Amino acid sequence: MIIDFHTHAFPDFLAPRAMESLAASSQYPPVLSGTVANLKSSMKEAGIDYSVVLNIATNAKQTANVNDFAIELTKADGIIPFGSVHPDCENIAAELARLKAAGVKGIKFHPDFQDFAACDNRMYKIYEKVAAYGFIMLFHCGKDLDPRMKCNCPPKEFARVARDFASAKIVGAHLGGQGMWSEVFEHVCGLDVYLDASYGFGLLTREQLKRFTDSHDGNKLLFGTDSPWQSQKHDAEMMKERVKDSKLYSKIMGENAARLLGLNA
Fold it and tell me: 173 with 229: CB under 8 angstroms?
């Protein structure tokens, strides 16, 4: 079983506009259109069984609509949607309750796009509510693809959240700090926390990759691509080439994610 733990998609009516806006500020051009149908085609080509689709409400008013889409995606074969709560949303508790009732498994936090510091005290109250429902909490960590964005969740701050919520199910995207590898080695490696490999394994040198896999629990690493920004087929092939240990490869590509998501591997 192969599970891509880090993808994005949009409703058909919104995808062209959303992709155009995001592409204008990104360092990398997208490889897919941003629709669910296009993602499914990509999954089939890459041999991927499940994709976790990470939805993000970038303002408070979007929260309900974004979560409507996440709930709709629970009916799509091979798609595991995460919901979103914006810090300024007035009815966070109600949103979390309806997401839980619909079977949504996690919440995506993007401190840069949602304009909050990962360790802000007001966020801790929200994390407590999210954790109480048993949601997986996935954080964008490190630098964003838009170089103009402020980094609101550097490795040191992510590590603090992970320690303060040690009993929660927490995932750090981009190996816990995209483009900030020295800080990842210092603050994140070795923590009891999941890390997804999107924009990670492909950017590390071979020496950095060995150091990373030697210092972080192989049971806590997750395959991720950040599709539609990266090719799922390319990244799946890249992981096979870079991870030579067959047991570790199987864990990263699906076994760890299946356990975290409560799927039958």
Answer: no
Q: Using N-to-C axis directions, what is the helix angle for 121-132 and 92-101, rounded to 10°?
A: 30
Whether residue 11 is predicted with pLDDT greater than 70 in this model: the reply is yes
pLDDT digits (tens, 9 = 90+) for 147-168: 667 899 999 999 999 999 999 9
* Alpha carbon of residue 95 to chain centroid: 20
User: Which residues, 6+ apart, have CB-to-CB distance to 7 below 8 Å?
Assistant: 39, 51, 52, 53, 54, 224, 225, 226, 227, 228, 232
Distances (CA, A) of 5 to 79, 109, 161, 231: 10, 14, 20, 14
DSSP state at residue 252: I
pTM for this predicted structure: 0.96
Is 30 buried (19+), middle (13-18) or exposed (0-12) by CB count in 10 A? middle
Instruction: Name the region of 177 (left: φ>0; alpha: ψ -120 to 50; beta: rest).
Output: left
**pLDDT tens per residue, range 59-108:** 999 999 999 999 999 999 999 999 999 999 999 999 999 999 999 999 99
Closest CA to 49 of 189, 255, 245: 255
User: What's phi and psi for 68, nearest 5 deg?
Assistant: -60, -45
What pLDDT is recorded for position 168? 98
Give me the amino acid identity at 261: L
Instruction: Answer for the pair 195, 6: CB distance below 8 angstroms, yes or no.
Output: no
Rounded distance, CA 228 to CA 38, Å?
9
pLDDT at 246: 97
Containing 139, the helix (H) or strand (E) segment is strand 136-139
- 């506009």: which residue's tokens? 17
